[in-house]
Design goal:
The complex is a heterodimer of chains A (310) and B (552). Chain A is mostly helical and 310 residues long. Chain A has helices spanning 2-8, 11-17, 27-43, 47-63, 67-91, 109-135, 138-145, 150-179, 189-220, 238-259, 278-291, 293-308, and strands spanning 98-102, 105-108. Chain A contains 12 helices and 2 strands; from the N terminus they run H-H-H-H-H-E-E-H-H-H-H-H-H-H. In chain A, strands 1-2 form a two-stranded antiparallel ribbon. The longest helix of chain A is centred in the middle third of the chain and has 32 residues, at 189-220. The radius of gyration of chain A is 24 Å and the shape is flat. In chain B, strand 12 and strand 13 form a beta hairpin. Classes of the chains: A mainly alpha (310), B alpha/beta (552). Chains A and B meet through helix 1, helix 2, helix 7, helix 8 and helix 9 of A and helix 2, helix 3, helix 4, helix 5 and helix 13 of B. Chain B: Keywords: ATP-binding, Cell membrane, Membrane, Nucleotide-binding, Translocase, Transport.
Chain lengths: 310, 552
């Protein structure tokens, strides 16, 4: 029977085949990649590291065909970068290189620089989520976590499903509220604030009512009634083992280096040097390998089909 | 015939409620039944349906007993219940959980721990039965409402239920999608032998398939039995008779079953016409021709409108022209996805037109958009989702706050008279979100009417309304049309409502408005797109379009 199942299974796989090699790996491996990627972008606070990471994440998004969305996120991040670079110095007065003072507020080069790095790291996380959404489908997500906690998984899935709905709904609500005279773009700041609060309230009530029906539909179909099976059986293949065999130790090494301060630039109290030591370059190479995991798989696939096959 | 469900002396009261939601219900469902439940919103239809599915029991006090296959339903294990009793809900969007169709189907089976190879087989056979192969890998969010509801049905059928419960499954669909869904249900019932219990507002399409009809009113079972019997018994009730579909309604109104000694009450156009023709029955028509407002001043003039969503997308609206006169009630009819909502939103300036000129109340749209405060007072728009307009905790508060916002002298009394005008005084202190769909429509309408708009645009105002509320809404608007010289432009796929109330009808097709005319002219000229009454009687009364026009 084991053989039998494997032969009849490929229906879903055939489709995912057409996109990325990475998607054919076991969901646990994919999930590991995303956890490590996000952690790296937060740990290695160094402009060179961050810029290289950003470039690689864009490449991964590109091969995952998130094209249009990616452009939108990048467009938005320009504003975000500017915003954080302005906001951080205003609230954070640490640092020694004072650029400007006004009315008791000190603007330091350190805080501007730190804001810049925070913004970069945030953009990397956002871009990572683009390919994450594409690669880790709800079925895979369910496979990963429904056994650990069915309730929490249900909650997460409903929440994730609501993000796109939220946006379109918010548009409709703001139009309707505008017509009944509650506007968020007009009047003094108190009126505007009130308008926003009202709108959020309507949005939350509506979404909550709908979420209840989703939960009903799930439990009506037996979700949470005991042990689950999985339509797609995700075996741990040799490929998964080989992948983890280099990926996990490398991750360990990189984080160990980070804990020793390698790949993290000193900002406070005074800006350190941007240049990397030889070990620094080595760790950067490690991070590059970690980030390009999906790209490496893709490149290998390309090589196999184009050069090695004959 | 096996007894699937038996309800004995059942009562239910929601916790915190003051009165019973269901009282003294005694019923049974046999295998092979196709049962339709009707009743106005708030009559307890959903509450009753949920009692038959223990996972979805609402919180409250219940007495009496419900049995499933002879066992108390409360003792039914979750997994057993999930498999034997399937449930489909009203809103097509909210029931979908996974990313694509095949995952959605697999989800149900995974939950009850079916082995992989069996899942494969069950999906394969169901997909062939329902013809889902073309959308199998489609992202569920990209499907149309009708397709979504089809997937929801499939995701329940794949569990091979013995009983299928449906709670107003077609309320959000357009007439064509409704017919498709219902004909599929008849296949499920006839070919698979699954028992069906379904609540519905619009009974025209479902009654010919049903063998039993239950009528609920205020939580009590008002009538129960074979379709013809129940229809006969409610035809004397002034309130409930609006639930009777047109064909049987006309027969009962003329007392034809007795006069002609009919054994069966006709339910479809074909049956009805055949009986009438065979017995040479002559009916009298009394056309209620609508007032011609074309001498009145023009209040809305659209010329050469064009709209597209993407730069190289299709034209949703293309060279659209329209003239609306004061006190007109224009119904724009068209299938879902023809751009009806887009048209209204772009007239209101909520979407940007690519080309064209909009003139409302004699002024250009660009003028109005600079004076939005006045604009939204004089020209109003009620969207498809009335709850978007709510902002406060009670209906009364909504109205009082709106009156205050418009700086009215006595907000409390203004609110009071608005409640009265809309006949919703009974829900004045309730939260607007707890109101039924029909009531929500009236509340939102009330909020907009405070500023005495001269022009009102409405998007599918009758969607999800029961026939009684539908009638009320029509009467209220008709009154405003006469008393406050209100002009109404609505887009709708509800042909009966349009035939009854509109003064002008037009068809939106291919981005243009075609065939604008007085309703009798409009529907009599149509062959497919016309009302049930017209289809049945056109051979003898070609211009009659609604039941009120047939007189003894």
């Amino acid at each position: 029977m084991g053989m039998d199942t494997r032969q009849r299974r490929p229906r879903v796989e055939r489709v995912s085949r057409s996109t990325l090699v990475f998607e054919q790996l076991n969901p646990w491996v994919m999930f590991t990649y995303y956890v490590v990627t996000i952690a790296c972008s937060m740990v290695f606070l160094h402009p060179i590291f961050l810029l290289v990471e950003l470039l690689l994440v864009i490449c991964v998004d590109f091969v995952a065909h998130t094209g249009k969305q990616m452009l939108m996120v990048l467009e938005g991040s320009l504003f975000m970068t500017a915003f954080i670079m302005i906001l951080n110095p205003l609230v954070n007065n640490r640092g020694t290189h004072v650029i400007w003072t006004f009315g008791g507020t000190i603007i330091t080069a350190e805080s501007i620089f730190y804001g810049f790095m925070m913004a970069l790291s945030l953009i990397i996380v956002l871009l990572t989520f683009l390919s994450y959404n594409k690669v880790l489908t709800s079925q895979k997500f369910m496979y990963l976590f429904s056994r650990i906690s069915p309730k929490l998984t249900l909650l997460t899935m409903i929440t994730l499903r609501f993000v796109p709905l939220f946006i379109s709904r918010l548009k409709n609500i703001s139009q309707a509220q505008k017509i009944r005279g509650i506007a968020v773009t007009k009047g003094n700041s108190r009126q505007r604030g009130l308008g926003v609060v009202k709108m959020m309230q309507v949005l939350l009530i509506q979404s909550f009512t709908d979420a209840l029906q989703t939960a009903d539909s799930m439990s009506a179909r037996g979700y949470g009634s005991g042990k689950r099976s999985s339509y797609q059986r995700y075996r741990f293949s040799t490929r998964d083992f080989v992948s983890l065999a280099w990926y996990l130790p490398l991750t360990g090494l990189c984080f160990y280096a980070a804990s020793r301060g390698i790949g993290r630039m000193t900002v406070y109290p005074s800006l350190g040097t941007i240049a990397l030591t030889p070990t620094g370059w080595l760790v950067l190479l490690g991070v590059v390998l970690l980030f390009s995991f999906p790209l490496i798989l893709e490149a290998w696939e390309w090589l196999w089909w184009n050069l090695l096959r004959s | 015939m096996v007894e699937l469900i038996k309800v004995v002396d059942f009562n239910f009261e929601y916790s915190l409620a003051k009165h019973k939601s269901l009282s003294d219900i005694n019923l049974n469902v046999n295998s092979g039944d196709f049962i339709t439940i009707a009743g106005d919103s708030g009559s307890g239809k959903t509450t009753l349906l949920r009692q038959m599915k223990p996972e979805l029991w609402p919180v409250g006090k219940r007495t009496g007993e419900i049995y499933f296959e002879g066992q108390p339903i409360s003792k039914l294990p979750k997994r057993e219940s999930a498999q034997s009793i399937g449930m489909v809900f009203q809103n097509p969007d909210d029931q979908l959980v996974m990313d694509n169709v095949i995952q959605e189907l697999a989800f149900s089976l995974e939950n009850i721990n079916v082995p992989t190879d069996v899942i494969q087989q069950r999906i394969a056979e169901l997909v062939s039965f329902l013809g889902l192969q073309d959308i199998l890998y489609e992202n569920v969010q990209n499907l149309s409402g009708g397709q979504k509801q089809l997937v929801n049905l499939a995701a329940v059928l794949i569990l091979r239920p013995k009983l299928l419960i449906l709670d107003e499954p077609t309320a959000q669909l357009d007439p064509i999608a409704t017919k498709e869904f219902i004909s599929l249900l008849s296949r499920v019932h006839d070919e698979l032998g699954i028992a069906i219990v379904m609540s519905e507002h619009i009974l025209d399409d479902v009654l010919p398939l049903s063998n039993k009809l239950w009528i609920l009113e205020h939580g009590e079972l008002k009538a129960e039995g074979s379709v013809a019997e129940v229809l006969k018994s409610i035809s004397k009730d002034s309130h409930l008779k609006s639930f009777i579909p047109d064909v049987p309604y006309l027969f009962l109104q003329e007392d034809l079953p007795n006069k002609l000694q009919l054994t069966d009450l006709p339910l479809t156009v074909a049956q009805g016409r055949e009986v009438l023709q065979a017995n040479h029955v002559k009916l009298n028509g009394n056309l209620q021709v609508r007032a011609d407002e074309s001498q009145q001043p023009v209040v809305a003039k659209l010329s050469h409108l064009a709209f597209e969503y993407d730069k190289n997308g299709n034209y949703i609206l293309n060279d659209l022209n329209l003239t609306v006169h004061k006190q007109d009630w224009l119904a724009i009819i068209g299938k879902n996805g023809t751009g009806k909502t887009t048209l209204l939103k772009s007239i209101m300036g909520l979407l940007s037109l690519r080309r064209g000129r909009v003139q409302l109340l004699g002024k250009k749209l660009s003028y109005w958009l600079k004076n939005t405060d006045r604009f939204y007072k004089e020209v109003s728009y009620l969207s498809q989702n009335p709850s978007d307009y709510f902002s406060y905790d009670t209906v009364r508060e909504e109205f009082v706050e709106r009156a205050k916002q418009l700086k009215m002298d006595n907000p409390e009394s203004a609110a009071e008279s608005m409640l009265k005008k809309l006949t919703i005084e009974n829900i004045a202190d309730r939260n607007p979100y707890d109101a039924s769909g029909g009531e929500q429509q009236l509340i939102a309408l009330g909020i907009l009417l405070f500023s005495n708009p001269k022009l009102l645009f409405m998007d599918e105002p009758t969607k999800g309304l029961d026939p009684i509320r539908r009638q009320e809404l029509g009467n209220i608007l008709e009154k405003l049309q006469v008393e406050q010289e209100l002009t109404v432009v609505m887009v709708s796929h509800d042909m009966n409502f349009s035939a009854q109330f509109a003064t002008q009808c037009a068809l939106l097709f291919d981005g243009k408005l075609v065939a604008q005319a007085e309703p009798h002219q409009f529907f009599a000229d149509n062959f497919f797109y016309t009302t049930t009454v017209n289809r049945m009687l056109r051979y003898q009364l070609p211009k009659v379009i609604q039941r009120g026009e047939v007189t003894p």
